[in-house]
Amino acid sequence: MPTEILGINTMALLAIAGMALATYITRAGGFWLMGYVTISPRIERFLRQTAGGVLIAIVTAAAMNGDWTMWCGLGATFAVMLLFRRPMTAILIGMAVAAGLRWLPGGFPV
Question: What's the confidence (pLDDT) of residue 16?
Fold first, then answer.
């Protein structure tokens, strides 16, 4: 019979603590290791583009399962980005387009 602490299974608590420790070690370890790396222009370019790559991966995964309103919002984001080269403005307009289409009475006509 599993033991409990404050009504919570101790194995669950140990699993959560283990995951928290592993997360901390990988984060802190990354900062520690980067202290020994000379930042060349190539590494700097890589680090600058990493955030954009992660954002694109998240958006692509969501778009593959998205409806027409999401695709219209994504299209608006893409168009604004091409025209103005302002990422936050493009994201906000894309979100507004998708939200506005979902807000329409009767939903978005397909």
Answer: 93
pLDDT of residue 84 exceeding 90: yes
Q: Is 14 exposed, middle or buried (0-12, 13-18, 19+ CB in 10 A)?
A: exposed
Which residues, 6+ apart, have CB-to-CB distance to 2 below 8 Å? 9, 10, 11
Amino acid, res. 17:
A
Closest by Cα among 90, 85, 83 to 98: 90
* Residue 57: per-residue pLDDT: 85
Can you give the residue ranges of every domain in the chain?
1-37, 40-110
72: its two tokens:
């219209």
The pLDDT of residue 2 = 59
Token digits for 38?
């000379």
Report which residue type is found at 107.
G
pTM for the model:
0.53
Helices marked H in 1-110: 10-34, 41-64, 68-84, 87-103
What six digits make up the tokens of 13? 């608590």
